[in-house]
């Protein structure tokens, strides 16, 4: 579904959110984290949901653990407690000078480093004893990194240690990836395997950096891509990570990588990567192909990120020459239920999300999926399949949105043209002037928002400048809010006409007040939203030029005002229904009931699109989010909103039709007079 449909759905979803994908954990007493939880209970009463409590770790660990108050219970939110001395580990395998300990920042990464000569408490990680290692021992360690393996494998794979190991692997990939031989790759795989173990997947939910799993994937891909091949091939196998490499050349008939790996103690899953023969023909000379398989990384990404996705196969990564751009992948499904659909996806390494535009499904059966995917060294190097139990027909919704958007833009332009033509005829009284003034601004705001939606889609799809995406989102937010606030102004105007009969407001006062409400309030909200969230890189959502929800809840700056206005305008419609004039006394009971129903239905039909009540139908998609009928109904009502404004706001207005008829008659009269003058003068008339 595109951005427009998504923002409509999210409008309701934010007020009726599903349970978080990585729910805070409830801790048992007696555990290390349970003791910290008790500390929060003793320190701060858990009364207000969302309140945070931060506790220092026990003496044998460094870092801190944070808890969040939910349902009057302190639940773990993040756990940064660790007992690994990452600085000493990195120094032992590096030829470089000791890293600065005061700041702990290296090339954009952050290590919880300690001061040199001050080792961490406890085991493992008693790194100080290695500072006096002889040059020979250090040289051997630099050759294959094997000397740090015992410390890492003996450390518990708790969230804090997981984060430190990810940062260590990242630094090794960035700074020590020259001449990656078999020994280095084996050690690297053992370190990664320790935190990829199926038994520690749940711990990833409490890692402080929600992008740690993405960092791990990028780091492994970078390091494995530098692997040197012995005798034209290489194979390094661990339980939860497997690396294979082959030499490839243009005369080969095709190359494939086959994997069968353990997901947990009872289940295995397989995968296959095939480089088609026609792709190999593009190679100018002999090169190498590397593939890495991760049977548990999909579940780890799912656990560590708030996105409501479910990976249903192993993650397969490839490192290929730039000339090779298409590969064929076969994924065995972990969940083989008949009702479970599949979607081929590639991991967008810069945007850190699964992208279905990277792959095209070739076949899908109950046990496996075959995908044709695009390989891009800077963006798409890792692929998998997502599980979709009730996959909505996005093509139907996309088609409705595209057709509706085009018709909406055309209808709004026609609406504004008609308003310009009949303006002087329909704005003779104060109340009609105010009504048409609101209608023109509603149409203008929606027209600009529709055009900006297209701009935002183009900016995102063409991977243009990040700042352009921010700018498009800002103005899209501004004019969608302006649309709702002008609808709110129209609702207030209707109440003014119905309830305040003897209170008069001048035209100038109305214009100033309407502009302050219609454009002033949206401008303030939009500026505050971008000013607060953009410095934290939390303004944009992943995968679209629109407001973020999962990290900063920036979407609330649109959802709360919009839903509040829909609720107020719904009350306005109720008042209109109550105030609808009753039919004359002379009519029969049956005729009176019928006339009354017709009047009420007409008023509701006229006001629903003008007051934005069609957005309220998104509630149905929340009640049953898997119903295609509800999604299609919601998409139809909102994609065609511009057409409804033209129909109910302009064409069905009696005074507007009379003014158009007068304009047409006047034009015909002027045309006939012009023809008479032409004939009288002996001229040719057209």
TrEMBL record:
<feature type="signal peptide">
    <location>
        <begin position="1"/>
        <end position="25"/>
    </location>
</feature>
<dbReference type="Pfam" id="PF01825">
    <property type="entry name" value="GPS"/>
</dbReference>
<feature type="transmembrane region" description="Helical">
    <location>
        <begin position="556"/>
        <end position="578"/>
    </location>
</feature>
<dbReference type="InterPro" id="IPR051587">
    <property type="entry name" value="Adhesion_GPCR"/>
</dbReference>
<dbReference type="InterPro" id="IPR000832">
    <property type="entry name" value="GPCR_2_secretin-like"/>
</dbReference>
<protein>
    <submittedName>
        <fullName>Adhesion G protein-coupled receptor F4</fullName>
    </submittedName>
</protein>
<dbReference type="GO" id="GO:0007166">
    <property type="term" value="P:cell surface receptor signaling pathway"/>
</dbReference>
<dbReference type="GO" id="GO:0016020">
    <property type="term" value="C:membrane"/>
</dbReference>
<keyword id="KW-1133">Transmembrane helix</keyword>
<feature type="transmembrane region" description="Helical">
    <location>
        <begin position="437"/>
        <end position="459"/>
    </location>
</feature>
<feature type="transmembrane region" description="Helical">
    <location>
        <begin position="396"/>
        <end position="416"/>
    </location>
</feature>
<keyword id="KW-0472">Membrane</keyword>
<keyword id="KW-1015">Disulfide bond</keyword>
<dbReference type="GO" id="GO:0004930">
    <property type="term" value="F:G protein-coupled receptor activity"/>
</dbReference>
<feature type="domain" description="G-protein coupled receptors family 2 profile 2">
    <location>
        <begin position="397"/>
        <end position="653"/>
    </location>
</feature>
<keyword id="KW-0325">Glycoprotein</keyword>
<keyword id="KW-0812">Transmembrane</keyword>
<feature type="transmembrane region" description="Helical">
    <location>
        <begin position="604"/>
        <end position="623"/>
    </location>
</feature>
<dbReference type="InterPro" id="IPR017981">
    <property type="entry name" value="GPCR_2-like_7TM"/>
</dbReference>
<feature type="transmembrane region" description="Helical">
    <location>
        <begin position="479"/>
        <end position="502"/>
    </location>
</feature>
<feature type="transmembrane region" description="Helical">
    <location>
        <begin position="629"/>
        <end position="652"/>
    </location>
</feature>
<dbReference type="InterPro" id="IPR046338">
    <property type="entry name" value="GAIN_dom_sf"/>
</dbReference>
<dbReference type="InterPro" id="IPR000203">
    <property type="entry name" value="GPS"/>
</dbReference>
<feature type="transmembrane region" description="Helical">
    <location>
        <begin position="509"/>
        <end position="532"/>
    </location>
</feature>
<dbReference type="InterPro" id="IPR057244">
    <property type="entry name" value="GAIN_B"/>
</dbReference>
<comment type="similarity">
    <text>Belongs to the G-protein coupled receptor 2 family. Adhesion G-protein coupled receptor (ADGR) subfamily.</text>
</comment>
<keyword id="KW-0732">Signal</keyword>
<dbReference type="GO" id="GO:0007189">
    <property type="term" value="P:adenylate cyclase-activating G protein-coupled receptor signaling pathway"/>
</dbReference>
<dbReference type="InterPro" id="IPR008078">
    <property type="entry name" value="GPCR_2_Ig-hepta-like_rcpt"/>
</dbReference>
<feature type="domain" description="GAIN-B">
    <location>
        <begin position="249"/>
        <end position="393"/>
    </location>
</feature>
<dbReference type="Pfam" id="PF00002">
    <property type="entry name" value="7tm_2"/>
</dbReference>
